[in-house]
Amino acid sequence: MKAMPICEGVYWVGAIDWNLRNFHGYETEKGSTYNAYLVIDEKIALIDTVKEGFEGEMLARIRSVIDPAKIDIIVSNHAEPDHSGCLPAVLRAAPHAKVYTAAGAGVKDLSAYYGDLGYIGVKAGETLVLGKRTLTFVPTPMVHWPDNMVSFMTPDNILFSNDAFGQHYASDERLDTECDLPEAYIQARKYYANIVQPYGMQTGKALAACAGLPIQTICPSHGIVWTKHIPDILALYQSWVAGEYDDTAVIVYDTMWHSTEAMAHAIENAFLACGLKPRLYNLHYCHNSDVIADAMTAKYIAVGSPTLNNNMMPSVASFLTYFKGLTGNKKKSIAFGSYGWGGQSPDQVQEMLAACKCEALLPAIRQAYKPSAEQLEKITEDVIAALRAQ
Ligand code: FEO
């Protein structure tokens, strides 16, 4: 386990979690990394740590550069345990190190997890001189926890951005110039949609706070390091923060005997007729976190469920609950579903979509039993009419 150089005197000393497949409900099909960075100067600094259980890997990487006992400073940009979990282990190896974290929320959160370890709270604009290098701290509260901050280091002009600009993407390549770049963008989008999206306003403020910095390298706490492609990832973040739409329409559903599925295809035909690009997700096969990633930039979302025991199907309830927590931009919505008797699910879906800040395009579309070709054609016509009436 070796440290990986980022630039002269700055090393990646994190851990690669090839096996991570679930990050509190977010499917991480490409694993992840927990990134920690070692800065060698007159004072030796460690920026963040890694998830508990990976301390051996992190300390081995640090040991490939210096004796961990020589670490003077630990900066904790974020107390979530995937970044602070090995703080006690590092302090055991470097007992004289001082821990710097955001004044207020950072000190509170670290104290709650690990007890009083003598944390030093830092405020906006405070600096810490390492020698030739200086760290400046910039709070970024609610991107995505109250304690979040980023650290900017001169003269290297490195932004240690913690969760912002991260990706759950396990890789032995550390830089954007070495990795599978299209995959990094896919995972950066999925990360933003599933972690950062509800905090768009706060992320916009964080982007504004960093806008004047002459950033040459972005070192996030997950995934690859941005060097050559900083303008591209910044532009993507700006568009996501702004809630920009593309020309896709998302249709999410579950089905018992293919009747709700047939309705989904009737709605698909309506979107196609109106020049949109429909994307269909049967929740029996698709994970909520993948649907959310694609839905983020869609202006239209249609959600369908059969009625099962007087309710929408649990898979649809699960998706809508997840969607409600992550809602970013406002969408136009369509609720639909088939039933044998009862038929409560379409209205339940409509109600839940309203709670997700969606505006209904038309009353919930209901269909008893198996829809005929004529009934499906009527659904398509009604949706086309609603789309054109806007
Ligand atoms: Fe990667 Fe908010 O922790």
Entry summary:
The protein has 390 residues and is an alpha/beta fold.
Task: Tell me what you see in this structure.
- This protein has 2 domains: 4-241, Ribonuclease Z/Hydroxyacylglutathione hydrolase-like (Metallo-beta-lactamase, Chain A), CATH 3.60.15.10; 246-388, Flavodoxin domain (Rossmann fold, 3-Layer(aba) Sandwich).
- The chain is built from 12 helices and 24 strands.
- It has helices at residues 55-63, 81-84, 87-93, 105-114, 181-196, 200-211, 230-241, 259-273, 288-295, 314-326, 345-355, 373-388, and strands spanning 4-7, 10-12, 15-17, 22-23, 26-27, 32-34, 37-39, 45-47, 73-76, 98-102, 120-122, 127-129, 134-139, 149-154, 158-162, 217-220, 248-253, 277-282, 300-304, 307-308, 311-312, 332-339, 359-360, 365-368.
- A hairpin with a 2-residue loop joins strand 4 and strand 5.
- The longest helix has 16 residues, at 181-196.
- The termini are far apart.
- The model has no long low-confidence stretch (mean pLDDT 97).
- The structure holds MU-OXO-diiron.
- MU-OXO-diiron (FEO) is lined by residues 78, 80, 82-83, 144-145, 163, 221-222.
Looking at this protein, list some descriptive labels.
single chain, 390 residues, alpha/beta, Rossmann fold, 2 domains, six-stranded parallel β-sheet, 24 strands, 34% helix, 24% strand, elongated, binds MU-OXO-diiron
- Assembly type of the shown chains? single chain
Give the names of the bound compounds.
Answer: MU-OXO-diiron
Specify the biggest β-sheet: 7 strands, mixed
Count every helix, treating DSSP H or I runs of 4 or more residues as helices. Answer: 12
CA distance, first residue to last residue: 59 Å
E-strand count: 24
Arithmetic mean of pLDDT: 97
Principal-axes geometry comes out as elongated
CATH topology of the largest domain: Metallo-beta-lactamase, Chain A
